[in-house]
Write a structure and sequence with these properties.
single chain; alpha+beta; 15% strand; globular
Length: 196
């Protein structure tokens, strides 16, 4: 693999920010497919691929989300051209024939163990959601990932089947730099890492 150049590092990390407001520039619909097609390429445990995304692209769709949002997330969501409900499929193992065709029986252990399936789905969908953010940034989009919502309401409104569950939300678009907060400090290597 080749190391990214400085511009690539800046796009994904150094200059990337969590946006609190967006310009009115619209996101081309084809970019959503490109975004997912990039994000899906990241590795997951046994290729389980539990991430499920609901793209809210219209005012009507986003209006369904507003009652579930914390007050601090309402304005930033209203300004974003797209809000993504990043969820996961608790029965991802039902896709065994497609996702693990050389050994689909490997997924049998999940079918009989809901706790194991839940933990695997949540962990790997969170990993995929991180890929999703990096893919969005690689395509020139800005992201505003959010907690701050009523999980039960979001599940009832967007995943009523009970098979799928929300993990977190993410606004997408072209960020308004005037709405950025100062970057907060991060832990340094010695505070966060141990080398054995």
């Amino acid at each position: 693999m080749t190391m990214l150049n400085q511009a690539g590092m800046d796009t994904l990390f150094h200059h990337a920010r969590s946006h609190n407001g967006f310009t009115d520039r619209q996101v081309p619909p084809h970019l959503l497919r490109e975004l997912y097609d990039l994000a899906k390429m990241g590795p997951t445990s046994a290729n389980c691929s539990p991430l499920r995304v609901v793209f809210l692209t219209t005012p009507e769709a986003k209006a369904r989300l507003v009652p579930a949002l914390s007050p601090g997330n309402v304005a930033k969501t209203a300004s974003a051209p797209i809000t993504c409900v990043l969820g996961y499929d608790t029965r991802f193992y039902e896709q065994a024939e497609r996702l693990f065709p050389h050994n689909p029986r490997l997924y049998d252990s999940f079918a009989g163990n809901p706790a194991h399936a839940q933990a695997t789905a949540f962990r790997n969908a969170t990993l995929q959601a991180a890929y999703f953010l990096f893919a969005a940034r690689a395509l020139g989009l800005d992201c505003g990932p959010m907690s701050g919502f009523d999980e039960q309401q979001v599940n009832e409104r967007f995943f009523p089947d009970g098979q799928h569950r929300v993990n977190f939300l993410c606004n997408l678009g072209y960020g308004d730099p005037a709405k950025l907060f100062d970057r907060l400090p991060r832990l340094d290597f010695d505070a966060a890492c141990t080398v054995l």
